[in-house]
Write a structure and sequence with these properties.
Layout lengths: L1 H17 L14 H26 L7 H15 L4 H12 L7 H11 L7 H11 L3 H14 L7 H19 L4 E5 L9 E6 L5 E6 L16 E8 L2 E2 L3 E2 L11 E5 L5 E8 L2 E10 L2 E2 L3 E2 L10 E7 L5 E7 L7 E10 L4 E2 L3 E2 L9 E6 L5 E6 L9 E8 L2 E2 L3 E2 L10 E6 L5 E6 L9 E7 L38 E10 L9 E6 L4 E7 L6 E7 L2 E8 L6 E7 L6 E9 L7 E3 L17 H13 L4 E7 L6 H21 L7 E5 L12 H7 L1 E8 L1
Helix pairs in contact: 2-3, 3-4, 4-5, 4-6, 5-6, 6-7, 7-8
Length: 689
């Protein structure tokens, strides 16, 4: 027992001594004057970087690598004397303004305990530590004490007021979380900084930036430059990320911004001749081409321009600009093309309704064209960057609204990239509990609440890290209103199964208007496009040396979001090759061609004119409903109607033959409605070439 009492006394005395402030004075280190000299010299060197970082922060600018450089020196002194309040304060400030802000808490708490008067800004940063730690009421008290103690704080009043508003907003947001899960994507993250996620609309591929070791030269502060990595998802698991293939990554910092909706282009920013500028890289085969700097209206030689985002219609680029003549940090701008052919951009215009007095960060415009996601340090943030939503209508954007907790926290929560259906999104955050600094997180929205049938109903829903513990109905965040279908797949040779680079045309069958033309990947044959509901689409696939292929999709208004994954097999222009013409339409029970068939028929006309030696048979087919005799006659008349159209377009009669097969040559079961629909078709077969 006596031994235990001594132990308690010893621990208590150690705690008391450890809680005392120890100045860097020779009287405190009589036996190690050399160590004291090295420590004080290190502090002096660190202070030079520290002051530069502080000046930048309070000018709403980025601190660069100054806090990192200061830390290198401060940590030398910290090893010599870990119980100095001022030094702990400075280390805490360095961490608070870094991706590793959670590390600041212990140092700022310790500084406050050792010497509350060690620096005039201690109470301000102590408030930040409390805020990061979720102690919002105590944080507000610390900010108020800072104002009282530091009478010259007027020039910093906007920062103090902002911090207090953040604490109030965070308390309210955490009290009523939105219906979403936020899960760390372990496969993508490292102990370093992983951020800038951009995903394809089907959610199958992702690119992002990371400063993990890459074999390049290490910076003066001991860090690697940022490269862009990619990964694909298989059975719900992301593959091991790999550096982006091609000419994108260099020894400079490459920061991924946005992927185009079809995944064939991306925006990034990097340092260029004294400024940050926005670049675009295009996917060719399996590699990304060398990035090309965007026009001066977007990448101005006089400003820093970052975080480029594609508009839904392809006419505009949104981005953030740091104008040296303003003290508001980065602000959201946009520039639109006058012509998609010439691609000449107009002067950039500020989106004034979404900007605040603080930095605006990464931007993402949803595929509906009516929703913009913006990261901001202002506008009601919980602390650091938060993600906000703005709604667009007739060219104007609404005041942004905080997306709520658990998407946003007192830490930095920024970048946003969503699937076409809006059910999933990926963000970056340096919230506590991650793998390193910034990590990639997946957000799963689980829609509006339903009235529980029994008290245990909501227990059926559970996050990977945060299972629902009660049946409370949380607040709902509206993600989107429009409905989309992702049409993806690849084009291959029907015989060899090798990828075929092809041109795909998307047509609105109701109007005959060509919506979009794009080319499939030359190395993989892959493609991806997102189609809005409420239309009947004709999809034509063409490749040199192959018969064209057509598909028809009817996506009713209000239909549920879905994904169509299609392998399109293209057939060589060889005798015996057959292809169905899926976008030829007749009135029910009649052989009169509808006008909506014209674009499909004109593609066949072009094929016959491009290959003048081609002779074909046009065949009509029905299902087995009704009289076999009537079906045979109807199929013959429909085949002849197609031949007549081709003749009217100048195709020689000797190259054409019409034949009706009725229901004698089914390609699917007539026992189902979908099978019968497959059997009702018009085909052509190459008879001679």
């Amino acid at each position: 027992m006596f031994k235990n009492i001594l132990t308690v006394v010893f621990v208590s005395l150690t705690y008391i001594v450890g809680a005392q402030n120890v100045d860097f004075k020779s009287a405190n280190f009589k036996d190690d004057k050399d160590g004291l000299k090295k420590a004080t010299e290190a502090i002096k060197k660190g202070d030079e970087y520290f002051e530069i970082g502080n000046t930048a922060i309070f000018a709403v600018k980025g601190p660069g690598h100054n806090y990192e450089m200061a830390l290198i020196s401060y940590e030398i002194a910290q090893k010599f004397n870990p119980n100095n309040g001022e030094l702990n304060f400075k280390i805490g400030v360095c961490h608070a303004n870094s991706p590793y802000s959670h590390k600041s808490i212990e140092y700022l708490y310790k500084a406050h305990k050792l010497d509350v008067e060690c620096d005039k800004f201690l109470l301000y940063y102590y408030g930040i530590a409390l805020q990061l730690d979720g102690k919002f009421t105590d944080a507000i008290k610390a900010y108020n004490k800072f104002n009282e103690a530091y009478r010259q704080a007027d020039e910093f009043s906007k920062f103090v007021s902002k911090r207090k508003r953040e604490c109030l907003a965070a308390k309210a947001g955490i009290a009523i979380p939105i219906r979403a899960w936020v899960d760390n994507v372990k496969e993508l993250n490292t102990e370093y900084n992983d951020f800038g996620p951009a995903i394809t609309t089907d959610g199958g591929e992702i690119i992002y930036s990371s400063d993990r070791p890459n074999g390049h030269t290490v910076s003066e502060s001991g860090t690697y430059d940022k490269d862009i990595y990619s990964s694909t998802i298989v059975d719900g698991i992301w593959n091991s990320p790999q550096p982006l293939k091609g000419g994108v990554n260099t020894e400079a910092d490459e920061i991924s911004n946005n992927l185009s909706y079809d995944g064939t282009k991306m925006l990034l920013h990097r340092f260029n001749d004294g400024n940050m500028d926005i670049y675009e890289s295009k996917l060719s085969g399996a590699t990304w081409g060398p990035p090309a700097i965007l026009p001066h209206q977007i990448s101005s030689p006089r400003t820093n321009d970052v975080y480029g985002a594609y508009s839904a219609d392809g006419w505009s680029i949104y981005f953030a600009r740091d104008n040296a003549n303003r003290s508001r940090g980065f602000e959201i701008m946009y520039s639109s093309m006058q012509s998609k052919i010439i691609k000449n951009y107009m002067a950039a215009t500020m989106v004034s309704t979404v900007n605040s007095a603080f930095n605006e960060g990464p931007i993402y415009v949803a595929i509906d064209g009516e929703t913009m996601y913006i990261a901001s340090q202002g506008k009601g943030s919980y602390g650091g960057y938060d993600i906000f939503v703005s709604k667009g209508s007739k060219g104007a954007w609404s005041k942004p609204v905080n997306m709520g907790y658990p998407i946003n926290t007192p830490y930095d929560d920024f970048f946003f990239s969503a699937t076409a259906n809006g059910k999933y999104a990926y963000i970056a955050s340096n919230r506590e509990g991650g793998s390193g600094g910034y990590d990639i997180y997946k957000v799963t929205f689980f829609g509006p609440p339903k009235k529980p049938a029994m008290v245990t109903e909501d227990y059926l829903l559970a996050s990977i890290v945060n299972p629902i513990k009660d049946n409370a109905i949380e607040a709902t965040v509206e993600v989107k209103k429009k409905s989309f279908t992702v049409f993806k797949g690849k084009t291959i040779d029907a015989m060899t199964k090798a990828p075929v680079e092809s041109e795909i045309e998307i047509t609105d069958n109701a109007t005959g208007k060509l919506i979009e033309t794009f080319t499939t990947n030359s190395a993989t044959g892959k493609f991806i496009i997102t189609l809005a509901s409420g239309k009947n689409y004709g999809i034509a696939v063409k490749a040199e040396g192959y018969l064209f292929h057509s598909e028809n999709f009817d996506i009713p208004t209000g239909s549920a979001d879905n994904l169509i994954n299609k392998i399109i097999e293209l057939k060589n222009i060889a005798v015996g090759s057959k292809i169905a013409l899926r976008n030829i339409f007749f009135d029910t029970g009649k052989s009169s061609l509808r006008n909506t068939s014209n674009r499909e028929l004109d593609r066949l006309v072009k094929l016959l004119k491009d290959v003048p030696s081609l002779k074909i048979e046009i065949s009509g087919h029905t299902d087995n409903t009704g009289s076999a005799k009537l079906n045979a006659a109807l199929s013959q008349d429909r085949a002849q109607a197609v031949v007549n159209y081709l003749k009217g377009k100048g195709i020689d009669t000797g190259r054409l033959e019409a034949k009706g097969y009725g229901s004698s040559a089914p390609i699917a079961s007539n026992g189902t409605s979908s099978g019968r629909q497959e059997n009702r078709r018009t085909e052509f077969e190459i008879k001679s070439n």
